[in-house]
Amino acid sequence: MASLAQPSSCAPVEKDGPPLPSPRGGPANGDANRCEYCHAPKSVFNFPFEVEHIIPQSRGGSDDLNNLALACHACNLFKSDFETGRNEESEAEVRLFHPRRDAWEEHFRIDTERAEMVGITPVGRATVARLHMNRPRHINARHRWIQLGLFP
Ligand SMILES: [Zn+2]
Fold it and tell me: What's the rounded Cα separation, in Å, for the pair 3 and 71?
């Protein structure tokens, strides 16, 4: 039977590199205990969240706090160095959600019955698609988080 990982009793080890976004500098749309893209609760992961460059370094993005977001491994992995995604309604390529400039609630909602992330704007839909936020594995995890009262 699958079970949720307990928070590690070890001190989290942050990777070298840019500092984590501070409470002063962000996250702008929530607390530091959630992925700033999919809102996955950090407490159920047994691995530290990752510092993600909103504008990728490969495209000139800086290490400035305004360009850093805290992301779960999946969101960081799928976002990669993309800045745009496909809005599935219009088929247009649009920019992705920007955790420092955009209000999360204006672009996403959560269907708690289906445990699905729903993009409610072109930016939200493109981000849900690009970051593969509704993969079966992620939906299964969300169902459990909802049952445990950890999400949304
Ligand atoms: Zn995430």
Answer: 22
